[in-house]
TrEMBL record, chain A:
GO terms for molecular function: ATP binding; ATP hydrolysis activity. InterPro entries: AAA+_ATPase, ABC_transporter-like_ATP-bd, ABC_transporter-like_CS, ABC_transporter_ATP-bind, P-loop_NTPase. Gene3D superfamilies: P-loop containing nucleotide triphosphate hydrolases. Residues 6-239 form the ABC transporter domain. The keyword ATP-binding applies. Pfam families: ABC_tran. This is Putative hydroxymethylpyrimidine transport system ATP-binding protein. Keywords: ATP-binding, Nucleotide-binding, Transport. It comes from Cytobacillus oceanisediminis. It comes from the Bacteria.
Automatic annotation (TrEMBL), chain B:
The chain crosses the membrane at residues 7-28, 60-80, 92-116, 122-141, 175-198, 218-239. This is Putative hydroxymethylpyrimidine transport system permease protein. It is found in: Cell membrane. GO terms for biological process: transmembrane transport. InterPro entries: MetI-like (IPR000515), MetI-like_sf (IPR035906). Residues 56-240 form the ABC transmembrane type-1 domain. It is a multi-pass membrane protein. It comes from the Bacteria. PROSITE patterns: ABC_TM1. Keywords: Cell membrane, Membrane, Transmembrane, Transmembrane helix, Transport. One of its GO terms (cellular component) is plasma membrane. CDD domains: TM_PBP2. Belongs to the binding-protein-dependent transport system permease family. The lineage of its organism: Bacteria, Bacillati, Bacillota, Bacilli, Bacillales. It comes from Cytobacillus oceanisediminis.
Length: 257, 250
């Protein structure tokens, strides 16, 4: 268990367009290590390649060079090994909440009643008791995201990838969800990679922040100088405020040059 | 006062039209050309056993067999076209082109091929109904969410999982829309088929009455045909409502 949960070793990647023409590289010689149980945020301007990193980790794409290691082992077919939570909740409108959450278990071929029991316990832990027979259309945005997160957890993997999960929520709901996520992360002891556009969100949630630049030169890794548990007030700490300004400067596209 | 029966206005309209027709027909007073609704109702009652026991069953059989074949061919083609680009490029233009053929003109050929058996009528029904079923099923399958498909892949889903858990459920709303169009068309198809030649059936009966200048006798089986169409439509709507409960009534 002392292996890092996820490791990129000089990974390069570019999308191949329809006519097999090679596009500009998205990632070149990327290195990083994510330790077991760590909470990492990835920030960067739009188009920097944040979601692309997730597509590589999940196995939807393969790197053109380099190695991706999961729990210390290189695995070629990674589909089904990492939990991925997309930006939209992507719940199936025709399935009930219970059936939606059961989807990854169904795909794994776990028996119906066993899967049901597992989901029902988790629904209770997630404050979603009593919604199991509702359809996604009956739930609020925050609740749907919780169901989507629950479904991600049920993938059973120790690495969870969350792609801007709260960006569609209003500010208050978002804060509640951030606190809720930290609590779940503590209980579940999972490794989380979390994409966001919001520097404050990244500072509040993570152990370390990976900053991707627009010019795709390198990934800058920043440690968050805050202990745990933390509250939203800790963000006004002078050291954190300085770091925040620094990060925003890095993200803002340079007008000169 | 908005809580009127939703069908109230259309029912009123029908009653008004029937009354206009009734008075018009009485004034005109040539019932072999324009029978009045009351006469038609009376004929329907008088001929009830012949119509319901002798002529309704064969027509209904044609409709049922025709629709069943259309659903099987249509859904099968849609699934194939969705799975293979080559199949789509091959069949889609042909399916569209098949609808430009005037089916009524083609129908006598079916009599040549199948004779006066039930199959010549079934062929006409299939030719009319498979189009809306195929196209709607295909559009439905194509409408499945690509992001959801990728999400399922990250869960380790197989092709089979994606087909049964994503593609099929996504296609159902569209498929049912097509099916509703198809059931109403199937009644027309069966009637056309029977006009061309048959020993029994509502379409055949209507035509025979025409040769006898029995206006009410022409209309009575048509009323029955239309009732069959409405009943089938309602049946499909009921199945749709039960299967797609999650869809909010708009
Ligand atoms: N399937 C694809 N084929 C070709 N190019 C793609 C594909 N997906 C993304 N790209 C391109 O790759 C680049 C990186 O995209 P990516 O989605 O990883 O960015 P991102 O950092 O997640 O941006 P955002 O913050 O807007 O979500 C973009 O320029 C995008 O246009
Ligand atoms: Mg993205």
């Amino acid at each position: 268990m002392n292996n890092p949960a996820l490791e990129f070793r000089s990974v390069s990647f570019q999308y191949l367009s329809e006519k097999k023409k090679v596009n500009a590289p998205i990632l070149t010689d990327v290195h990083f290590t994510v330790n077991n149980g760590e909470f990492i945020s990835i920030i960067g301007p739009s188009g920097a390649g944040k979601s692309t990193i997730f597509r590589l980790v999940t196995g939807l794409e393969q790197p053109s060079a380099g190695l991706i290691l999961l729990n210390g082992k290189q695995v070629k077919n990674r589909l089904g090994l990492v939990g991925y939570m997309p930006q939209q909740d992507l719940l199936m409108p025709w399935r009930t909440i219970l059936e939606n959450a059961m989807l990854p278990l169904e795909i794994k071929g776990i028996k119906q009643d066993q899967a049901e029991e597992e989901v029902l316990t988790l629904l209770k832990d997630f404050g979603l008791e009593g919604t199991e027979n509702s359809h996604p259309g009956d739930l609020s945005g925050g609740m749907r995201q919780r169901v989507s997160f629950l479904r991600t957890i049920l993938s059973g993997s120790n690495v969870l990838l969350l792609d801007e999960p709260f960006s569609a929520l209003d500010a208050i709901t978002r804060l509640t969800m951030q606190e809720w996520l930290l609590q779940q992360w503590r209980n579940l002891k999972k490794t989380i990679l979390f994409i966001t556009h919001d520097v404050e969100e990244a500072l509040f949630l993570s152990d370390r922040i990976f900053v991707m630049s627009e010019n795709r030169i390198s990934i800058h890794k920043v440690k968050v100088p805050l202990g745990r548990p933390r509250s939203i007030r800790d963000l006004s700490h002078p050291e954190v405020v300085r770091l925040k300004e620094d990060l925003i400067d890095q993200l803002r596209p340079r007008v000169e040059s | 006062m908005k809580k009127f029966n939703p069908y109230l206005s259309s029912s009123l309209m029908v009653i008004v039209l029937l009354m206009v027709w009734e008075f018009g027909a009485r004034a005109y007073n040539k019932s072999f050309i324009l029978p009045s609704p009351a006469e038609i109702a009376f004929t329907l009652w008088e001929l009830r056993s012949v119509l319901f026991l002798k002529h309704l069953p064969p027509t209904f059989l044609v409709i049922a067999i025709g629709l069943a074949i259309s659903v099987i061919i249509g859904a099968g083609l849609a699934i194939w076209m969705n799975a293979s680009k080559t199949a789509e490029k091959t069949f889609y233009p042909i399916i569209i082109a098949s609808q430009t053929i005037p089916i009524i003109a083609l129908a006598p050929i079916f009599v040549l091929w199948f004779g006066y058996t039930i199959w010549s009528k079934v062929a006409v029904t299939v030719l009319i109904t498979f189009f809306p079923i195929t196209v709607s099923a295909f559009d439905g399958l194509r409408s499945s969410n690509k992001d959801l498909k990728e999400l399922m892949l990250t869960m380790g889903a197989s092709k089979k999982d994606i087909f049964f858990k994503l593609d099929i459920p996504s296609s159902l709303p569209s498929f049912f829309s097509g099916l509703k169009v198809a059931v109403t068309l199937s009644v027309i198809g069966a009637a056309i088929g029977e006009w061309l030649g048959a020993q029994a059936g509502l379409g055949y009966f209507s035509r025979r009455m025409m040769t006898q200048f029995d206006g009410a006798g022409v209309f009575a089986p048509i009323v029955l045909l239309s009732a069959v169409g409405i009943a089938l439509f309602l049946l499909i709507t009921l199945i749709e409502k039960t299967l797609l409960k999650w869809r909010k009534a708009a």
